[in-house]
Amino acid sequence: MTKIRHSSLLLKLILAFWVVSISGIIIVAVLAGRVSQREFNRFINDAQYQNLVDDLAGYYSEHGDFTGAKYLLEAASQQAPTGQAKEFLVVDADGNVALSLVQRLPSGKLSPDLANIGIPIMANTEVVARLIPMRTPKNPADMAQKNLQRIYFDIFISMVSATVLALLFGWLMARNIIRPLRDLDTATQSIAQGNLEQQVSISSKDEIGTLASSFNAMTASLKRSRDLRRQMTADIAHDLRTPLSIILGYTEALSDGKLQGSAEIYQVMHQEAGHLNHL
């Protein structure tokens, strides 16, 4: 199993993904909290209207319908404190308006989705109708639409926030990773042009830092090899120059007649040629 070091690039990537994931979880948690708070407020409102629901349920159980039960809505409207709905709508299970204390009503039958946004009115363990408290005389369709719009807006904000956060962390991580790689690329091109003095800075202790350290060690080794080669070439040239100078001097003197050949001279020339042969 591979051991993960504290300064490992793998660990940095894991931490980056972890931060992005946690941020997404936090955003979802905030969204869920908002939705939960909204539903809790709705629950509180349902509790506040429970007396009216019980009265309507009792009336339905006694009479079999809501004909004549409008006075219950009127009484609840008069007793409602500031901030609570003073207009009500009672919709039966089929979506038909059974009772209304609303100035403007939608025409025709309500859709099941709209009919289900109210507080259930139970009779004989069955939902016979729903009470829809309305703060203003608005169409119930507008209420449902606004609820959906708020949910969609929260989801949209969560998606945008998570995307922006992921892009931000991705950009930061990519920049930190790419910067030393670009430095290595520039240094490599410089070495290809013969500049063995090139070194790169080591800004981290992860795998990229190790790569930079190895690169610096490689360039230092290449520089030492080049210097040794130059020194060796200079030494060889010096060693070649001495016997060649001797041989050239003797041959020039012999050709000009300034020196008469002798066994001693030929012996020296032979020895110097032997030196060259050894080199």
Write up what this structure looks like.
With 279 residues, the chain is an alpha+beta fold. Among the domains are: 90 residues, no CATH class; 72 residues, Helix Hairpins. It contains seven helices and four strands, in the order αααββαββααα. The chain has a four-stranded antiparallel beta sheet, covered by helices on one side. α5 packs parallel to α6 and α6 runs antiparallel to α7. The longest helix has 53 residues. The two termini are 55 Å apart. The model has no long low-confidence stretch (mean pLDDT 74).
In brief:
The chain has 279 residues and is of the alpha+beta class.
Helix-strand blueprint:
Layout (H helix, E strand, L loop, with lengths): L8 H40 L1 H14 L6 H10 L7 E6 L4 E4 L11 H4 L3 E5 L2 E9 L5 H53 L14 H50 L6 H16 L1
Antiparallel strand pairs: 1-2, 1-4, 3-4
Uncertain ranges: none
Distinct helical segment count: 7
Report the count of strand segments: 4
What percent of residues adopt helix (DSSP H or I)? Answer: 55-70%
Q: What about the largest sheet?
A: 4 strands, antiparallel
* Helix/strand order: HHHEEHEEHHH
What's the overall average pLDDT, rounded? 74
Give the DSSP E fraction (strand runs of 2 or more residues): 5-15%
Task: State the distance separating the first and last CA atoms.
Answer: 55 Å
> What is the CA-based Rg, rounded?
47 Å
Which structural class best describes the helix and strand composition? alpha+beta
Order of strands, widest sheet: 2-1-4-3
Overall geometry comes to rod-shaped
